[in-house]
Design brief:
about 425 residues, alpha+beta, conserved putative lor/sdh protein from methanococcus maripaludis s2 fold, Elongation Factor Tu (Ef-tu), domain 3, 4-stranded antiparallel beta sheet, about 35% strand, elongated
């Protein structure tokens, strides 16, 4: 057979090889087609130029606030700890068995109330002994005085020597000193007897009892019987950075600055009590760079409790006739602070300002703004200089009367109902 004539057997053997070479090409084509379909599906449809121009001209809904001119308090904030106005550990003054406890834990007590009693019989016996010794020495003194009068008469008529009269006079002085000593013993014994009644040294609230009835107590015990804390009035100690020292010193020089004790809860700040700043420490803590202060609160309703933490707001000054705006109206940029002033035609104008003191209630504008001007608060970040704004109500649900809120893109305009 001629070598140029194709062999059917060789042709059949090459067919599977050609098919295996076609599969990668087919698979690559399928993947490329799927990619083209996906890009076409997720690519946003080109927006109609007329619709784009229509959206660009819509006003921007904003909330506005009026810059007000008012007296604004300058307040410094700190964290304080509540302390009792007075705190006393009641201890026994004499040793002996504790026979009575006359108070309940946590109850209010008054100065002079009997809190407990120690067995008094030994101290009563010591008092009786001292009284008897004094009576004995008083009798000896009285007899010595009678003898002294007699010796003085005899010495005056030369029936006795002057030496005997002088000796008797010295004996009288000795008995007088002995009686005074006996009186001191009586006073000491009576005091010890009185100390068997343990009384409250101040008005306050009793804490947890440390000793139960029946125990033997000693004057040297470190724990004592109970702690009495005076809660009305009450102290709050707090610290401020040393940079606040000039303002605090100036405020104290003008009187007792007002201090508010507040707590944070349920997403809002609640004022617990109002008091006065009474103590400014005489040195700065070099380790923390802070100054320690103490404020006094009446605490008539016992809302402040020793050991608790409260937020402290100290008013150090008042900015008179200051122009203030809400903090949300102040925007910050590379060239400083600014606000968007909404004019009478509802056109926003970018206005650079210089700010001063600021808190959650407002920001003082030192330069760039006058009282009565409207500034954008909510929605100010979407404004630009010269952009049109629509002023909404505070709820954000409707514009001001006489103004129409922009409809959503693509939504049909609602016609007013027929009158």
């Amino acid at each position: 057979m001629d070598s140029l004539t194709p062999n059917p057997t060789d042709r059949n053997a090459q067919t599977p090889i050609r098919r295996r070479r076609r599969w990668p090409i087919v698979l690559l084509g399928l993947l490329l087609g799927a990619a083209i379909v996906g890009v076409a599906q997720f690519r946003p449809a080109p927006q109609d130029p007329a619709a784009r121009n229509r959206l660009a001209g819509l006003p921007i809904p904003v909330l506005v606030a009026t810059a007000t001119q008012r007296d604004m308090p300058i307040v410094l904030d700190g964290l304080g700890t509540v302390q009792a106005y007075n705190s006393v550990i009641v201890k026994p003054m004499v040793d002996g068995p504790l026979v009575a406890v006359n108070f309940n834990e946590g109850q209010s007590v008054a100065k002079g109330d009997i809190l407990a009693r120690i067995e008094p019989r030994a101290f009563q016996a010591a008092l009786d002994l001292a009284l008897a010794k004094k009576a004995q020495d008083e009798a000896l003194l009285a007899n010595a005085k009678v003898d002294l009068v007699r010796y003085l008469k005899l010495a005056g008529s030369n029936y006795s020597t002057a030496q005997q009269a002088d000796t008797q006079k010295a004996l009288v002085a000795q008995y007088e000193a002995l009686v005074r000593q006996d009186q001191a013993q009586v006073d000491s014994a009576r005091s010890n007897l009185d100390y068997t009644f343990v009384v409250s040294p101040l008005d306050g609230r009793a804490g947890v009892r440390a000793v139960d009835r029946g125990n033997i107590v000693h004057a040297s015990d470190a724990t004592g019987l109970v702690t009495i804390a005076q809660l009305q009035p009450i102290f709050v100690t707090f610290t401020l950075p040393q940079q606040a020292l000039p303002a605090v010193a100036k405020a104290i020089a003008g009187g007792e600055p007002t201090v508010l004790a507040t707590v944070q809860g349920a997403g809002r700040t609640t004022t617990v009590e109002a008091g006065k700043l009474t103590v400014l420490d005489n040195q700065v803590d070099s380790s923390t760079g802070t100054i320690k202060l103490k404020a006094t609160f009446p605490n008539q309703e016992s809302r402040l409790w020793p050991g608790g933490f409260v937020n402290v707001r100290l008013q150090v000054d008042i900015a008179r006739n200051a122009v203030t705006v809400p903090p949300a109206a102040v925007q910050r940029g590379p060239r400083g602070s600014f606000v968007y002033v909404i004019g009478a035609d509802d056109v926003a104008a970018r206005q650079p300002i210089k700010t001063g003191y600021e808190d959650e209630q407002g920001t003082i504008v030192l330069e760039g703004l006058k009282g009565g001007e409207r500034v954008a608060t909510d929605g100010a970040s979407r404004l630009t200089d010269g952009s049109k704004a629509v002023v909404a109500k505070a709820s954000g649900d409707a514009p001001q009367p006489g103004r129409e809120r922009p409809a959503a893109p693509g939504a049909p305009r609602q016609r007013p109902p027929p009158g």
